Amino acid sequence: MIRRLLTLLLPVAFVLVAAVAVPIGTVIAHQRTQDVYVDRLADASRFASLARTALEAGREDTLAQELARYRELYDTPVAVVSPAEELVVGSEPPGRLREIVESAGEISAVRLALAGERPGAPATVWPWTTEALVVAEPIGRDSEVEGAIVVAVSPDGLGASVLRSWGWLALISLVPLVLLAAAAMPLSRWVLRPIGRLDAATTAVTSGDLEVHVDAERGPPELRRLTESFNTMVAVVRGALERQRSFVSEASHQLRNPLASLRLAVENLAPHLTTDTAREAHAVAVDETMVMHRMLNSLLAATRLESITGTDAVEVAAVIDTRVSRWRALGDTRGFTVATDVPAGVWVQAPAGGLGSILDELFSNAIRLSRGSRVEIRLRPEGPDSARLMVLDDGEGLPEEEREAALARFWRSSRHQNTEGTGLGLAIVADLVRQSGGRLELEEGLRSGERPGFGVVITLPRTEAREDDQHDEHGEHDQHDEHDQHGEHDQRDQDEGVAGRGGQGEGDDGTER
User: Fold this and answer.
1) What is the distance between the alpha carbons of residues 366 and 370, in angstroms, rounded to a whole number?
2) Helix crossing, 60-74 with 2-57: angle to 10°?
3) Helices assigned H by DSSP within 90-154
4) Are both 380 and 410 inside the same structural domain?
5) Which of 4, 3, 6, 1 is CA-nearest to residue 183?
6) In this predicted model, which residue has the larger pLDDT, 356 or 512?
7) What pLDDT shows up at residue 49?
């Protein structure tokens, strides 16, 4: 934006300066020509008086010496021409002086002088002019003309003088341009600073930070009004999201107890059913109440995930260390081998407090839906700017045409229609990753025979480690180790999380017993 503004301002300033400098340059050339013409005309008048006296007294030699000295002093040839346009006395050889006069195209000026008239104002001499400036003065008294004095001014010296003046004019003209260019940068930054703050705030909002507020006290009035409107818009969106999440959470909580009572009442009908048809209908009713219960729990879990805003710098290895023991314990109960390949010291920018939850859900998704026997978590740095975090299994996987659809909310694979879930989890995880500046991709996993496996690949921006973040990670690690030692982890939360494979299955992470 600053470059565009400067690109617009500087050419306009150049045109304005040129609009002033070009007329001044023209006036300078006219003035220099006029000054030289008037000066040489005065000299020609003096020589005309001397020539009349010398010609009457027959002292042409004295006149020739005077003209020669003038030639040496001013580098300007002078000659006395007879009424027949023949050279009488000159400071140059006859042929040379005639070449100068005739090449100038000013023989008419000589003829006017021989006719007893003075020529008018001369043409302006420019730096590129090649014709001499000819000044002619009649010799004689009253109407009797005895000849003419011809002064031929070379255009080289006069053109060089004009060119030097133009050079100084150009330097002086550069001063306002330089001052404008120097002032344009801070001025442009001042004008665009509110836009820069709005841009940074917009970026923060797209990352999920709805607590951002832009200072609307500085800058032009129009931008201050725009900033106030932006702050109002963010506040309205934040309030709407908070009300939406609050409604979903409260509604889910309020429905849990009535639904649990309904489920208990339906289950208590079992002893009173006497026919097979009634028992089958009773089983269907119980299953439906369980599906509704899981739906409520999924909505609660989704609300918790969506409430994550902002990003934190975290060390991936430290986050995985706090959870790998639970993953392996859960894998043992399901017949899975759990392996990790995560180098230490790789820090990434991840959803605030959410990377561990994301990995929990992806791991739970893998062991519940893959129908395989192995899960691997890998981390691969990709240069200084990003790192790829992969959760891979050796199960059935998803066809390529279903992978893109798997990131849509409420989508479920046709092969998992009978699997518990609502189709929210993976889409929410993908949104969280995007909000932190990363991306989530679905690929093949650990190929085993004809089974391609399934892989969730998360690419996150790398960042520098901060001392306070290191303390937080170590503290979290110690806390989780202590919990593992006392057996306080609820494996059901790991086993039945919200994020399913494209919604192929989200678990009952809070089912009342």
Assistant:
1) 5
2) 170
3) 94-103, 107-114
4) yes
5) 6
6) 356
7) 82
Residue 140: left if φ>0, alpha if ψ -120 to 50, beta else—which one?
left
Strands 374-382, 337-341: pairing kind: parallel
**128-180 pLDDT tens trace:** 887 778 887 888 776 777 788 888 787 788 888 888 999 998 899 888 888 88
Same domain membership, residue 287 and residue 342 = no
Nearest to 41 by CA among 86, 78, 88, 73: 78
Angle at 393 between CA 389 and CA 397, to 5 degrees: 110
Q: Which of 158, 98, 149, 126 is nearest to 26 (CA)?
A: 126
Nearest to 310 by CA among 461, 459, 475, 432: 432
Same domain (yes/no): 299, 317:
no
Listed in sequence order, the residues at least 6 apart from 91 whose beta carbon sits closer than 8 Å to its beta carbon are 64, 67, 68, 70, 71, 77, 78, 79, 97
Residues 389 and 295 in one domain: no
Q: Which domain holds residue 442?
A: 309-503
Q: Which residues pair with 78 in a beta bridge?
A: 151
Write down the pLDDT at residue 472. Answer: 47
Distance CA 243, CA 166 (A): 72
- 160-180 per-residue burial string, b: 16 or more CB within 10 A, e: under 16: ebbeebbeebeeebeeeeeeb
- How many domains is the chain built from? 3
How many beta carbons lie within 10 A of that of residue 38, not counting itself?
A: 11
Q: Which amino acid is at 157?
A: G
Contacts of 98 (CB under 8 A, 6+ apart): 87
Contact 98/88 with Cβ under 8 angstroms?
A: no
CB contact at 8 A, 141 and 51: no
In a domain, residue 179? The reply is: no
| 398, amino acid identity | L
Question: What is the H or E stretch that residue 325 is in?
Answer: helix 324-334
Highest mean pLDDT among 32-41, 85-94, 293-302, 323-332: 323-332
Helix (H), strand (E) counts: the chain: 14, 11
**The dihedral formed by the CA atoms of 82, 87, 88 and 94, expressed in degrees to the nearest 10:** 180
Can you point out the beta strands (E) in 306-437? 311-315, 337-341, 347-351, 374-382, 386-393
3-state secondary structure 137-155: EEEEECCEEEEEEEEEECH
CATH code for the domain in which residue 287 is found: 1.10.287.130
Strand (E) or helix (H) holding 252: helix 221-267
Question: Which of 439, 242, 269 minimizes the C-alpha distance to 349?
Answer: 439
Distances (CA, A) of 190 to 184, 219, 221, 411, 413: 10, 7, 13, 49, 54
DSSP 124: P
Quick one: tokens of 181?
A: 């260019």
Which of 307, 335, 366 is the last residue in one of the domains?
Answer: 307
Report which residue type is found at 317. A
Instruction: Give me the count of residues in the chain.
Output: 513
- Measured in degrees and rounded to the nearest 5, phi and psi for residue 375 equal -130, 130
